[in-house]
Amino acid sequence: MLPFCREFAKQMGVTRSGNHLALVQFSGYCRTEFGLTGYFNPERLEEAISMVRYMNGGTRLGQALDYTLKRVMNASRKGPPTTVNKAVVVVTDGASEDDVASPAKALRNDNVQIVVVGVGSGIVQEQLELVADGPANVYTVEDFAQLNKALAGRLKAKICEK
Hints:
Blueprint: H1 2-12, E1 23-26, E2 30-34, H2 42-50, H3 61-73, E3 86-92, H4 101-109, E4 112-119, H5 125-132, E5 138-141, H6 149-160
Parallel strand pairs: 3-4, 4-5
Antiparallel strand pairs: 1-2
């Protein structure tokens, strides 16, 4: 998973005046690994991603979406300006144990595009499509080994097409 995050960050490119990235990890609870204004230097961003330690536990995707909206995208109204494209990429390997419809809708109401990557056999396609507002923003892979450079490129293209 972390190699994929590093590849995605590399392809997106981060700069103070361009793309900003944040990383939120979730299981039974949520944790911000770094916020949207944390890193503008690609090497330091890669180091930060490498320092992430995986969380274990459940899959509370609805809670994670709500957390991301309130604590990352709109953190003290210091989130991204309304004039920039905003997107959330969700990577999940399980069915959510909580409601995803309301928090996903709240993000979309804030003009945030949601792209979902489902990994493995524990996902529920209908739930992913509900979060992503349809199948066009959903990608599925059989295992974490398939999270690769090509997929990172497709995600970047999807996010940047808006």
